[in-house]
Design goal:
Dna Ligase, domain 1, D-amino Acid Aminotransferase, Chain A, domain 1, Rossmann fold, 6-stranded antiparallel beta sheet, 14 helices, elongated
Length: about 400
C-alpha cells in the first residue's frame, strides 16, 4: 500500500526527518485560513506518478491565485485519479538535490540503503550512479555513514545525510515497510537538508499488524470500492471483474489457477478472494473460518455473482469447522446476506436467492469434510461437491450459463 505524500510527510515529521511547513487542503476555501507563508506550492495528492507534468503541482504567491489553482487541481484527473486532498507547502530554494531510499531486497531478503547525488535519475543508467549498502547484520549508524561516504559526501553534509538515512531506516523497521524513499532530499545554500518529496510503501502482509495503517487502508477501500485504487493499495486478497463466478481460494496460486481455468472453460470470473490472509479492511485478528464466512457473504451480496466456486487445496486451518461454515451459509435466510455490506459490480441480475455453490476439496485432510458435504448436497439444490478441479470449474461455468439463459 502506497501512502499519499501528506501522509508520508506526517510520518517523516514524527521520525524527525526534516520536512517543510505544510497544511492539508480539503477544499479550496481552506486556503483563506492558510497558516503558512507565501509563496507556497500546491500539490495534488494522488497515487499516480508525474503529477508535475500533468499540472498537479503549482506554485502560487497570493490567496486569490492559490484558490484558483486549487480549484483547477481538484478537478484535474491524473491517470484517472482525482485528488480528495491537496498539500500546501512552503517553497524551498534547493542548492543540491539527492536521492535516498531504504528498500527491501527480496533477492537477498535484506534491507538495502540506496543513495545518489542526482534526484531525477535516469533509471536506465542508475546502475552507474546509484550507491548501495546491504544491511547484513543488526543496523548501526555505520551503515548510514558508509552510504553517505560512497555518495562522495564529507564533513557536516555527510553527517546530516547519514542522520536522515538512520531515521528512514527506523521508520522502515517500525512500520514494516517495503520502501522508504526521499526524492529529492534538498540541500540549501546553508547546508541544511530537507525532504521535499517522499514515498512510503507498506508491506501488504503487515497492514493488519498496525491498527492505524489498517484503518487508513479501510478508508481508502471504502472511498473507492470499485475503482483501480484497490490495486494501488495492494489489496492482495482480492481481484475484481464483472463476471458471474465468484472464487474463494486458500492461497494466491489456488485463486489464480482457478481464475485461469474458469476463463479457459468459457466462464467469466467475478470477485476473487484469497482467504489465506486477512482482508485489507480487517482491523483485528481473524481466523480462516471467519474469513471464509465473510468471503461467502461478500460474494453472495454481489447480485452479479451467480455461482461461488471454492477451491481448497492441501491444508487449511480449522478444517473440521469449515463444513459447518458452508452449512450455515446455505441454510441461512437470504435477508441476512443482502444486508451485508460488500463490494458490488452494480449488476442486479440475481434477486432473492443464494448463488449456487461449487466446492472443490483436494487432499486427504478434506476426506471427512467431503463426506459430510456430500450428504448435505442431497438436501440442497445449492451445493455441488467435487475433488477434481476441472469438474468443479465445468460445473460452475455450466451453472452460471444456465442461470443467465433463464433470464
Amino acid at each position: 500500500m502506497d501512502l499519499l505524500e501528506y501522509q508520508v510527510k506526517e510520518w517523516f515529521g514524527m521520525m524527525g526527518i526534516p520536512v517543510l511547513p505544510s497544511q492539508r487542503i480539503d477544499h479550496p476555501t481552506d486556503l483563506k485560513r492558510l497558516k503558512i507563508r507565501y509563496p507556497i506550492v500546491l500539490k495534488s495528492q494522488v497515487h499516480a506518478a508525474e503529477r508535475e507534468k500533468a499540472g498537479g503541482v503549482r506554485m502560487v504567491e497570493t490567496t486569490i491565485d492559490a484558490i484558483a489553482a486549487a480549484q483547477t487541481i481538484f478537478n484535474l484527473p491524473i491517470w484517472g485519479e482525482l485528488p480528495e486532498v491537496l498539500l500546501a507547502e512552503c517553497k524551498y530554494d534547493a542548492h543540491q538535490e539527492f536521492y535516498l531510499a531504504v528498500v527491501l531486497d527480496t533477492a537477498v531478503c535484506r534491507p538495502v540503503l540506496l543513495g545518489c547525488k542526482e534526484a531525477n535519475i535516469d533509471w536506465e543508467s542508475a546502475g552507474e550512479k546509484m550507491q548501495y549498502v546491504v544491511v547484513e547484520q543488526e543496523f548501526s549508524p555505520f551503515y548510514a555513514r558508509q552510504l553517505a561516504l560512497k555518495m562522495g559526501l564529507r564533513g557536516a553534509l555527510m553527517l546530516s545525510v547519514s542522520g536522515v538515512i538512520e531515521k528512514m531506516y527506523q521508520l522502515f523497521i517500525q512500520k514494516d515497510l517495503d520502501l522508504v524513499e526521499i526524492n529529492p532530499l534538498a540541500v540549501n545554500s546553508a547546508g541544511q537538508v530537507m525532504a521535499l518529496n517522499g514515498k512510503v510503501r507498506v508491506n501488504e502482509r503487515a497492514i493488519n499488524r498496525h491498527p492505524a495503517i489498517a484503518q487508513m487502508a479501510a478508508k481508502i477501500v471504502s472511498r473507492h470500492p470499485n475503482s483501480e485504487i484497490n490495486g494501488i493499495i495492494g489489496d492482495w486478497n482480492s481481484s475484481q471483474s464483472h463476471g458471474k463466478i465468484g472464487i474463494l481460494g486458500n492461497g494466491t496460486g489456488s485463486v489464480l489457477t482457478t481464475l485461469d481455468l474458469v476463463v479457459n472453460a468459457g466462464g467469466k470470473p467475478g470477485v476473487c478472494l484469497n482467504l489465506r490472509h486477512s482482508f485489507v479492511t480487517d482491523t483485528s485478528p481473524t481466523t480462516f473460518c471467519g474469513r471464509l464466512e465473510k468471503g461467502l457473504k461478500i460474494l453472495a451480496a454481489d447480485k452479479g455473482i451467480q455461482v461461488i466456486l471454492i477451491n481448497f487445496l492441501g491444508t487449511i486451518p480449522q478444517v473440521a469447522e469449515m463444513p459447518e461454515v458452508i452449512t450455515k451459509f446455505i441454510q441461512q435466510d437470504t435477508s441476512e446476506i443482502t444486508s451485508h455490506l460488500s463490494r458490488t459490480n452494480g449488476n442486479q441480475s440475481r434477486e432473492g436467492s443464494l448463488p449456487r455453490l461449487v466446492v472443490r476439496l483436494a487432499g486427504s485432510e478434506f476426506n471427512a469434510a467431503r463426506k459430510y458435504l456430500a450428504t448435505l448436497k442431497t438436501q440442497s439444490d445449492v451445493l455441488i461437491v467435487t475433488e477434481n478441479l476441472d469438474e468443479g470449474v465445468a460445473a460452475a461455468v455450466r451453472l452460471a450459463k444456465s442461470a443467465r439463459s433463464k433470464k
